[in-house]
Structures are given as structure tokens and as C-alpha cells.
Amino acid sequence: MSVLILIAAIGLLFFLTLNKVSPFIALLLVALGVGLAYGLSFPVLMKSIQNGVGNILGSMALILCLGAMQGRLLEKTGVALVISQFLMKKFGKTHLQWAVLLMGFLVGIPLFYNAGFVILVPFVFTIAASAGVPILYVAMPMAASLSATHGFLPPHPGPVGLASIFKASVGKTMLFGLLVTLPVVWMAGILFGKRFRSSYITSKGAVLPSENRQLPSAFQSIFIALLPIIMIALPAAVISLFNPGPSLNSILSAIGDPVMAMLITATAAGYFLGIGRGMPISELMEHYTKAIESVAMIMMVIAAGGAFKEVLMVSGVANEVAAVISKNSFPPLLAGWLVAAAIRVMIGSATVAGLTAAGILAPLVQSSGVSPELMVLSVGAGSVFCSHVNDTGFWMFKEYFGISVKETLMSWTIMESIVSVTGLLFVLLFSAFV
């Protein structure tokens, strides 16, 4: 019975998404439907929804807001332009793909996917035009980097939300995510991108926007872009590898706490990219305000995902589905990928797919002893599988690069699937050593 309720819930979510209903509203409606179908009383159901929203926002709202504040400053102060020009100068035309891949990686870590994509597209056009190569040959490494960072690395909403649900360490998730992301973007961006070396789809000859303001240095730009990783992943790596002792562990844990790390990086970005370069405090605060506004809807979608998860837990649906998966001997990491991938194909949204899968599989993670950090990455990998016509990312890629639906399926969709499948394979490989 529980499996049928869950299938009906996912079907309803799919129907609402196809009919352009906001994912926030859709998830809340589905959560209500599941609770009522399973016989929860209305007061218990509403209390579960409120608890689910509060629990997930309590652990991740500050991380997302502070990450958005840093990302807004990187976008508006020319850091992306500086990084791209620096990498192009260092790599030259003979290694265009590597330059674009690193550009996407550096910009993709602190910026949300859509913002990073829009910022980098003009550079991709200009690089392709100046080198005389097909546009997709340059675009694939950029898209693969943005997709992988979106699926695997905090402070992106999906990984942060999954870490909250699975009770995973954000620091360890970032550390393991980096180990997965590096080979994945090479396979999906560089190796797969080479097949477009002789493509007839050429650049439109776009040029970079003119920049009249004084830009920050390359070192400063790269350092500020990478600071979240340094602050969060490095202390986790030192503690895991060296176990330096209680006192130093305490200090490193405080520095690497995701909220503290993101507060430090957002403050550093505000000073070095803003106030220290003559930006009025009022303008800096306006950037911070707009950054929080831009992430508000993303946060509410994740909050609704938390509500859905809580209803699944309270009603017993998640426990029964987890028991079915366990009974059929699906390894938890594989089960996480399969459930997230199936929901992704049906619904289109990577964030919704990941959060829905996490709500279903949370009891399995708690009972199986599997690494919650690797579970975050497994579900994250499944959540980016096979992007097609029901995903806004599909249409963004198609329209920006002026290609047909068939060409988008043969490029973007396959690239996303490579990121997903190879991500799962590396997670399974790492699970043998964790």
C-alpha cells in the first residue's frame, strides 16, 4: 500500500510540474496528499509539515544565504571576467577545453547554476570565435563543471539539503565531492567534449561586455572564489587524516563549521571586493539584500522538500519503502541513485529529485550504516541524470547556443548522464575505502 501511495505521489508531482505549478506549491500539495492518504489526522499532518520545514531550514538557511551573498559579489565585481582572462592567458588556445573547464569549476563552486551559466556563456562564445572552434567543443567543459558542482558540492542547494536530511558532515561532503567531481568533469567535459571538435555548430562571434571599472587581481579573484572550499574542506581533511588532538580538533571544527566558514568568506568578499575597493557600504548592503532575495524561492522549494520528507517519515511510508529496498538487496548507494534518477527523469528538477529521494531513503541510511556523505553524493549523482525536455536547464542550453532539440539531446543530455553515471561509479569506488 505504501509503495502505491508513493508512486501516486510522484505521479502527482510529475503532473503538477508539467503544468507549470511552482515546485514549492507542488511539493506541499503532494505532502498533504500523502499524509491524508495514509490516514494522518489533520493536526498531526500540519505539525509534521511545520517540523519538516523548520528542521531543514534551521540547518541550511544561513549557509545558502551567505553563499548567495558571496556569489553576488563575485558576479558583480568582475571576478568571473578576471578568472576567465587569467586562465585563457595561462592555458592558451591549444588547451581551450581545460581553461574553460577550470573557469566553470571556479565560478561554479560559489555561484548557483543559472547565475554561473549566464555569466560564462559570453566568454564561451568569445573563446570559440577567437580560436575558430565549434561552440559545443568549448561549451561542454563549462556545462560539465557547472553541473558537477551543482550536484556534488556545497554550498549548492541540493547537496546542502541532502546533507541536512542524511545528517552528513558538510565538510566531509565537500571533501568527498571534490574527489568525485575532478574525474567526472574530465570525462564529461573534456573527453566527451572532444567529439564536437569537428561539429559544424560555430560561435556567433559574441564579444565580452566592456568593463570600465578597475578589476581585482587574478590571485585575489581565485582566492575569494575558492575560499569556501578552503574553509570547509581543509579542516575536515586535516581532522580525518591526522586526528591532531582534542584542542586542535576543536579549533579546526570551529573554523570549518559551514555557517562560520561561509560567514567568513562572505565578509572577506565584502571587504576585499567591495569596501576595500571603494564600494559604498550602502551599495554593498544592496548587493547582499538582492542576493538573499534571489535565493528565497530556492530555499522555500528545499523547505517544502523537507516537509514532504517529514510526512513520509511520520506516516511510515519512507520506512516501508526502505524496508522493501532492503528486502530486495539493493545496496543503499545504488538505491539512492536509482530513486533520484527515476524522479529526475519524471520531474526534471534536480533539487526536487534529490530531496524527494532523500525523504524516501533517510530511514535506510540510518539503519544500514552507510556513509551519509557518500549517500549525499550518490543521490546528487542520480538527481542530474538524463536532463531532457522537462528540465529548464535543457532549454537554457538549447536557446543560448542556438541548437536544435535533437542536438541538445545529443550533447547536453548525454553530458548530464555521463556526470551522473560516472559520479555514481566513483562514489561506489570510494565506498570501498570509507
Index terms:
434 residues; mainly alpha; globular
Q: Helices and strands in order, then pairings?
A:
Elements: H1 2-18, H2 23-37, H3 42-76, H4 79-91, H5 96-108, H6 113-131, H7 135-152, H8 157-166, H9 170-191, H10 218-242, H11 246-256, H12 258-274, H13 281-315, H14 317-327, H15 332-347, H16 350-368, H17 372-383, H18 392-401, H19 405-431
Helix pairs in contact: 1-2, 1-14, 2-3, 2-13, 3-8, 3-12, 3-13, 4-5, 4-6, 4-10, 5-6, 5-7, 6-7, 7-9, 7-19, 8-13, 8-16, 8-17, 9-10, 9-17, 9-19, 10-11, 10-12, 13-16, 14-16, 15-16, 15-17, 16-17, 17-19, 18-19
Description:
This protein has 434 residues and is an all-alpha fold. It has one domain. It is built from 19 helices and no strands. The longest helix has 35 residues.
Biggest sheet, in brief?
Answer: none
Q: What is the residue-averaged pLDDT?
A: 84
Task: Output the structural class.
Answer: mainly alpha
Morphology call: globular
State the helicity in percent bands. over 70%
Beta-strand content:
under 5%
Tally the beta strands: 0
**What's the helix-strand series?**
HHHHHHHHHHHHHHHHHHH
Distance between the termini: 36 Å
Could you write a compact summary of the structure shown?
This protein has 434 residues and is mainly α. It has helices at residues 2-18, 23-37, 42-76, 79-91, 96-108, 113-131, 135-152, 157-166, 170-191, 218-242, 246-256, 258-274, 281-315, 317-327, 332-347, 350-368, 372-383, 392-401, 405-431.
